[in-house]
Fold this sequence. Notes:
Distance between the termini: 51 Å
Bound molecules: nicotinamide-adenine-dinucleotide
Number of helices: 12
Helix content: 25-40%
Order of helices and strands: EHEHEHEHEHEHEHHEHEEEEEEHHH
Radius of gyration: 20 Å
Structural class: alpha/beta
Low-confidence stretches: none
Strand content: 15-25%
Amino acid sequence: VIAPVRIALIGAGRIGHVHLRSILSHPETCELAVVVDPYQPAIDDIRESFGVDQTSTDLAAVFDDPTIEGVVIAASTETHASSIMEAARSGKAAFCEKPIALDLEATDTALAAVAAAGTMLQIGFQRRFDTGYARAKADIVEGRLGNIEMVRDAMRDPAPPPPTYLAKSGGLFRDMTIHNFDCVRWLKGDDPVEVFAMASALTGDEIRDIGDVDTSVITMKFPDGSLASIENSRRSGFGYDVRTEVFGSEGAMLIGESRQTSVRWLDGKGVHEDHRYFFIERFAPAYEKELLSFVSNIRSGNQPVVTGADGRAAMVLAVAAEESLKRRQPVNPVDVASFAHTEAAHAQS
Ligand SMILES: NC(=O)c1ccc[n+]([C@@H]2O[C@H](COP(=O)([O-])OP(=O)(O)OC[C@H]3O[C@@H](n4cnc5c(N)ncnc54)[C@H](O)[C@@H]3O)[C@@H](O)[C@H]2O)c1
């Protein structure tokens, strides 16, 4: 009998709850070692909601415990890089939520520590584990769409996150569009050579006041001339919205089922379906699959499906989009090192 993998969870906020549920749901493959969060109310909430008593407010409970094999980093973004490095130094595999860090410099420092230690790092781009997206990718690789000439990717959140989150998020492109950058480069199987961003702050003063944007359109061009567009909004009146269209020389594919139940109601007011209102519901199975994949990679020694290099490549595109927005012209992400400010503009505000 193979013993379950001992996992620690760092960060007990919104997404920490999602990952904790996955860990606790699979006692045959993984075992919760400890949940760490310096914020006592978050710990109290976890103890009450999940009935777990392996909790701590001190990160030493993770990194000083040699029996812990894997670390799930779901804390606020500005803490990711240091936890990744601590995990590498203590020889533990790490699953880290997006983005790896708030800027490219910290991303590279964290990835260098992982490379030096030879440990495993998986990044939380959960779309790759979604049934629809995974199927689309498989079909693209098989050539069912011919050459991919256009990808259209849209994501909208029901409402902006709280101001405390926004101020430390790194801004729309690094925090939110990063999912779309990963998705588009993964589906296309290549990196763009041109990125052009337009964006506004339309949802109210809060986001404009911290110098961020909440509504954007980004267009991209790939080396073979194919194109992509990404649309984002921090607010959507009907709830979470994620839709992707892949258009190839021999066909197209639409990804983005949002119904909770496969039922359609017809009445005097029209035709109605239910809708998964938030990303937590929409991607629930994908979040569970990515976590199980991480645990199984720890046992098998296999490479993760989403690597640190993928996390970095998406961050490069986010920085390029910011530079394009500033210059009001397209930029080539290859030139990222020459962009004046690759640090996150809103990180410290
Ligand atoms: N993949 C996704 O779809 C997805 C969705 C939501 C959030 N995220 C990412 O997950 C991270 C957390 O987001 P959230 O929405 O859960 O935020 P949140 O604000 O709800 O929770 C963050 C938690 O981290 C804790 N924390 C802060 N510093 C810490 C430290 N040093 N060690 C341990 N815990 C610490 C905070 O006390 C808080 O409880 C962010 O990086 C975000 O980008 C990813």
